[in-house]
Each structure stands twice: as structure tokens, then as C-alpha cells.
């Protein structure tokens, strides 16, 4: 293998970081790789990039053991391959997603993408909603040990890719069962949960950053007021990156922000503008 192209969706930076680390590690092994945010490439560009690569990669943050709806749409629109294309599928997760990328294997194989490698990366929690039971922090220094472990895992996986060694994590029955324990309920409440976004009009400064960084154009201004539509994919960008913490969920904003600011990416260099649509 000489080159690989990677496509990813990243809400608040975790999957972006992993994708960049993968390209760097592959490069050190003599495999030219480049990562692309799905928000910044058309399907025509995607098809051309895949056609020119020996292998492909796809990554996303997994929510409730499921893929974000916009990433599923992207995968379903992928061009059919006439010759099998070796593929790596990876997810970023809080701790355990069960079968990770493997639940998409059937769909990928039907399109001619042989899921030769599948893995998961435990990354910092980006869910800063006050009533979430999971601890979070926006302090970058806290992430150093976790990111180092991810780098080590990335290097091991890239070595397997360079050697042509097939390897997929969590393909067993237990992993599949525990994934569906999460995936089933998540899919049931997915659309219903979209209606709980709101904006504190007194805190909002109408900067429109949330409008510009939303990956699915779900937010718009209506008579000077920020409004959410019905297409949210729960990426947390608007909530975490609002400069005045005016975005609320279920009537609550980030009440702990003064002592524990929202997650703003795994490293300080990340900004959502790096990966969102330029339009």
C-alpha cells in the first residue's frame, strides 16, 4: 500500500485529532495519507479521492453506539467500488460502545469497502450538559495521559495496516449485544430529543457562530433570535462553543462553566472552523 485517504466527521475535535494522528503515523511508515472532514468535500471530490487511493478510512464520534445521522448519509452516498477497497473504520468514544464501527460492516462491504481494520479510541468526554452523569473538563492538561495512550494505540494499528494484517476489535457476541442495549433506545429517542434545544435571548449576542459551525445547517437566525430546527445530530458544537453559553438543553445551560468550562477540543489548536463547511 502506498496511500490512504481518510474521511471523518468530528463534532468538537476528538475524531479530527485521531484522524490527524493516523495520517502522521501512517506517514512515518511510508504510507502517504490525508484526512478530510466530510463537511469540506463534495461527493464528487470524495469519489475522486477514493479512486486515487489504495485504501480508505472512515471515522466518527459514536453516540449511543450509533453513528451521527449526517455521517450515515455520507456513507450511504459513497460510490460503489468495482474492485474491493481495503478500509479502516474507527470511532471515538467515551468508554465503551460495544461493537464500535463493526455494525456498519455489512453496508460497507455491499459497497465494495472491505472492512479490514476496525477499532475504537477512548477520548475525553465532550458532553458538558449539567445533568449528564459523566464527568468532563475543558482543561487541556487533563487530557495528556489519555491522548498519549491513544497515540500508542494508533501506532500499533498503523503497523498492522502497513503489514497488511487484518484486525478488527470487538466482533464478538457480547460486544454486539451491549451495543444494541445502547443503540436501540438511542434510536427511539433520537428525533424526540431534538426539541429540547433553546437559547437564552438575554445571554445571546447574535454573533451567529452557532449558525456557521453547525454541521447540518440546523440553526438559523429569525428576527435576531437563534432558532434550532429538527436536524440536530447532537455534536455539541453550538452548546460548547457559544461564547456566552447562551445555548441550553432541556432549559439548562452550563451552570458549572465558571469552575469547569465546556469541552473545546482535545488540544488548544482545535477550532470547529477548521473542519466545518466554508460556505
Task: Give the SSE map.
Blueprint lengths: L2 E6 L5 H15 L3 E6 L5 H9 L3 E7 L7 H8 L8 E9 L11 H6 L2 E10 L21 H20 L3 E2 L4 H17 L7 E3 L9 H5 L5 E4 L2 E4 L8 H5 L5 E3 L30
Parallel strand pairs: 1-2, 1-3, 3-4, 4-5, 5-6
Antiparallel strand pairs: 7-10, 8-9
Helix pairs in contact: 1-5
**Cα-atom radius of gyration:** 19 Å
Whole-number total of structural domains: 2
Residues in helices, as a percent range: 25-40%
Unreliable stretches covering 5 or more consecutive residues: none
Order of helices and strands: EHEHEHEHEHEHEHEEHE
> How many H/I helices?
8
Q: What would CATH call the architecture of the largest domain?
A: 3-Layer(aba) Sandwich
State the CATH topology of the largest domain: Rossmann fold
Label this structure with key terms.
279 residues; alpha/beta; Alpha-Beta Plaits; 2 domains; six-stranded parallel β-sheet; two-stranded antiparallel sheet; 8 helices
Could you walk me through the main structural features you see in this protein, from its secondary elements to its overall organization?
There is one protein chain. With 279 residues, the protein is of the alpha/beta class. It has two domains: 3-185, 3-Layer(aba) Sandwich (Rossmann fold), CATH 3.40.50; 195-273, 2-Layer Sandwich (Alpha-Beta Plaits). The chain is built from eight helices and ten strands. α4 (105-110) links the parallel β4 (85-93) and β5. α1 crosses α5 (144-163). The longest helix has 20 residues, at 144-163.
Amino acid at each position: 500500500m502506498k496511500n490512504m485517504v481518510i474521511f471523518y466527521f468530528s463534532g468538537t475535535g476528538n475524531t479530527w485529532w485521531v484522524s490527524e494522528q493516523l495520517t502522521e503515523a501512517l506517514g512515518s511508515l511510508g504510507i502517504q495519507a490525508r484526512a478530510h472532514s466530510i463537511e469540506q468535500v463534495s461527493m464528487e471530490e470524495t469519489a475522486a479521492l477514493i479512486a486515487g487511493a489504495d485504501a480508505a478510512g472512515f471515522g466518527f464520534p459514536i453516540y449511543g453506539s450509533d453513528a451521527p445521522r449526517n455521517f450515515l448519509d455520507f456513507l450511504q452516498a459513497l460510490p460503489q467500488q468495482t474492485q474491493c477497497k481495503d478500509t479502516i473504520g474507527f470511532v471515538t468514544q467515551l468508554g465503551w460502545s460495544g461493537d464500535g464501527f463493526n455494525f456498519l460492516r455489512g453496508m460497507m462491504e455491499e459497497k465494495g469497502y472491505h472492512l479490514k481494520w476496525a477499532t475504537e479510541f477512548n477520548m475525553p468526554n465532550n458532553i458538558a450538559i449539567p445533568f449528564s452523569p459523566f464527568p468532563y473538563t475543558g482543561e487541556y492538561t487533563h487530557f495528556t495521559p489519555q491522548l498519549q495512550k491513544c497515540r500508542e494505540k494508533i501506532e500499533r494499528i498503523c503497523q498492522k495496516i502497513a503489514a497488511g494484517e487484518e484486525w478488527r476489535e470487538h466482533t464478538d457476541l457480547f460486544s454486539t449485544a451491549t451495543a444494541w442495549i445502547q443503540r436501540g433506545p438511542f434510536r427511539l429517542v433520537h428525533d424526540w430529543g431534538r426539541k429540547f434545544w433553546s437559547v437564552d435571548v438575554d445571554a445571546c449576542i447574535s454573533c451567529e457562530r452557532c449558525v456557521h459551525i453547525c454541521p447540518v445547517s440546523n440553526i438559523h437566525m429569525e428576527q435576531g433570535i437563534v432558532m434550532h430546527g429538527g436536524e440536530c445530530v447532537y455534536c455539541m458544537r453550538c452548546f460548547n462553543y457559544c461564547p456566552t453559553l447562551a445555548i441550553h438543553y432541556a432549559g439548562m445551560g452550563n451552570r458549572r462553566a465558571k469552575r469547569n468550562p465546556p469541552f473545546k477540543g482535545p488540544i488548544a489548536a482545535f477550532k470547529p472552523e477548521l473542519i466545518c463547511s466554508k460556505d
